[in-house]
Write a structure and sequence with these properties.
The protein folds into two domains: 163 residues, no CATH class; 52 residues. A hairpin with an 8-residue loop joins β7 and β8. It is α+β, with helices and mostly antiparallel strands. 35% of the residues are buried. The strands form two sheets. Strands 1, 3, 4, 7 and 8 form a five-stranded mixed sheet that branches. The longest helix is centred in the last third of the chain and has 13 residues. α3 crosses α4. The protein is 24% helix and 28% strand.
C-alpha cells in the first residue's frame, strides 16, 4: 500500500507517575507549516477521517518508521488513546506497550534520549491543490485520509513536539471549546454552548464512540468549564 508521509520533529516528555508509564503526547502534524516534502496541511484537513475512525470505535495504529523495515516494525508499538485537531495541528496522545520486553525498553529508551525524535503520519491525499509558482508549496493538503501515525528517527518537519500528556490539545477558552465540539463532533452551535456551560448533563444521546471522545475532551478541559461569570 503506497502512502504519503508528513514528518514532524518532536521533543519527548513522558508522564512521570508509575500508573502512566510510557504515556506521551504531542502533534502528528502542524497546520500551515511547510514540511521537508514540500507539503502544507490546512486546518481541519483531518476532520472527516477522524470522524470515520471514531465511528469505527478505533484510532490509527502506532508504528515505528511506518513499519518500513518489516518484521516486528510492522506490529504496533503502542496505542493512540486520543487524536484531535486544534488550532496548532493534529494533537495526539498515546501509550507505549510491552515496556517489560527488550523491544519495548529499546523504543522507550530511544524516545527518552531523543533518538527516536519525530512523529510522522501515513496518509492518502483526498483533496489538495498543486503549487503553481516556484516558491509555492508542492501541495496544499485540504483533506486527508489518515492511515497510521508513526514514531520516527528522521523527521521532516521542525515544529511539532511531543509534550506532557496533561498539556496535549489544551483548550484555552470557552469559545475554542465550543468550536471543537461543533467541528469534531457535529454538535450545533446551541448544543455546544449548552455543553460548555452545563457539561455532561447537556449532552444528547450519541453513539458510544462519539460520546466517549467528547467526554474525554470535557475531562481534559474541566477547569475552563467552571465559568466564574
Amino acid at each position: 500500500m503506497n502512502l504519503d508521509h508528513y514528518l514532524a520533529r518532536m521533543e519527548v516528555k513522558f508522564a512521570t507517575d508509575a500508573a502512566a508509564a510510557g504515556t506521551f503526547s504531542g502533534y502528528g502534524a502542524i497546520f500551515g507549516n511547510l514540511d521537508f516534502n514540500g507539503d502544507v496541511i490546512l486546518k481541519w484537513a483531518f476532520k472527516e477521517t477522524l470522524k470515520i475512525w471514531r465511528q469505527n470505535k478505533s484510532l490509527p495504529p502506532m508504528l515505528v518508521q511506518h513499519g518500513g523495515f518489516g518484521g516486528m516494525d510492522e506490529i504496533a508499538v503502542g496505542k493512540w488513546t486520543a487524536m484531535a485537531e486544534d488550532d496548532t495541528g493534529l494533537a495526539v496522545e498515546g501509550k507505549l506497550i510491552n515496556l517489560d520486553t527488550e523491544r519495548g525498553r529499546t523504543i522507550y529508551g530511544a524516545m527518552k534520549e531523543n533518538v527516536l525524535d519525530g512523529l510522522s503520519i501515513g496518509f492518502r491525499a483526498v483533496d489538495f491543490a498543486l503549487g503553481s509558482k516556484p516558491d509555492a508549496p508542492r501541495r496544499t493538503l485540504k483533506k486527508i485520509d489518515l492511515v497510521e501515525v508513526s514514531i520516527v528517527q528522521m523527521p521532516g518537519n521542525g515544529l511539532a513536539r511531543i509534550r506532557d500528556v496533561k498539556s496535549a490539545a489544551r483548550i484555552k477558552t470557552i469559545r475554542e471549546f465550543e468550536e471543537r465540539l461543533r467541528d469534531e463532533f457535529d454538535f450545533s452551535h446551541a448544543q455546544a454552548k449548552a455543553i460548555a456551560t452545563h457539561g455532561f448533563r447537556a449532552m444528547e444521546p450519541r453513539d458510544e464512540a462519539t460520546a466517549t471522545e467528547a467526554a474525554k475532551l470535557i475531562r481534559r478541559n474541566i477547569d475552563i468549564l467552571n465559568p466564574r461569570r
